[in-house]
Design goal:
Layout lengths: L2 E6 L4 E6 L4 E5 H7 L9 H26 L4 H10 L4 H13 L5 H12 L5 H10 L4 H14 L5 H18 L8 H13 L4 H13 L1
Antiparallel strand pairs: 1-2, 2-3
Length: 212
């Protein structure tokens, strides 16, 4: 495999590109240690050092450091590692490593997110947000079921009650009243619709405001 180019990424790192269209970001010290140069044949021994030694070790360390700063889903962590120039298979290996220690757990992430957001978002919006973070729908459903086991009252009826309280709270916050104009009512309905609320529930809540 011939090294077709060595391109500087920043003062510390450069990207090594091969004729196979593979590329790796290495520190300049690593490049000097391996004596890599453009147009040079990359030996099998050096290739193994990069793919089985340097990159996996560094990628795992990078994953651990990222997780010290905040919590990630598997999808979010992989994206961050890919953005750092690590090959996909190396990223997958690093994620398996940190997951084996429980540092990345999409199920636990979904559980925590639902608990944090259920008083301010509809269940549908929470699901959409979690899926946008790369969490599979089956994991989200499992998290909701597990929450149901933890709190015996957390069933379909209680979810509806939580949503109704949130609707009332939002209407109050937006100063909704029986005298609100037709345009304002339509804007509110559109607001709730975009966030995944049941529109019939919203209309019923509006009617209750009119009766008070």
């Amino acid at each position: 495999m011939v090294i077709t180019s060595i391109t500087e990424v920043n003062k510390q790192r450069s990207r090594i590109s091969l004729e196979t269209e593979e590329s790796y970001v290495l520190y300049k010290g690593e490049i000097r240690m391996l004596k890599l140069k453009e147009g040079q044949e990359l030996s099998e021994e050096d290739y193994d050092k990069i793919m089985r030694g340097i990159l996996p070790k560094r990628c795992k360390m990078r994953a651990m450091n990222l997780l010290k700063e905040r919590r990630y889903t598997s999808y979010g962590l992989k994206k961050k590692l890919l953005d750092g120039g690590y090959p996909e298979e190396i990223c997958d290996e690093a994620i398996r490593y940190v997951s084996s220690y429980g540092y990345v757990n999409d199920f636990a992430y979904a559980m925590d997110y639902i608990k944090e957001q259920e008083e301010s978002r509809s269940i549908r919006e929470i699901k959409q947000k979690l899926m946008s973070k790369g969490i599979q729908n089956v994991i989200i459903d499992q998290a909701l079921k597990e929450l149901g086991k933890e709190r015996e009252e957390y069933n379909e009826e209680s979810q509806k009650e939580i949503e109704e309280r949130l609707i009332i709270k939002t209407l109050e916050k937006r100063n909704f009243s029986v005298d609100s104009s037709y345009e304002d009512k339509q804007k509110l309905l559109a607001y709730f619709y975009r966030r995944g609320f049941d529109i019939d529930s919203v209309k019923k809540a509006m009617d209750r405001f009119s009766q008070d």
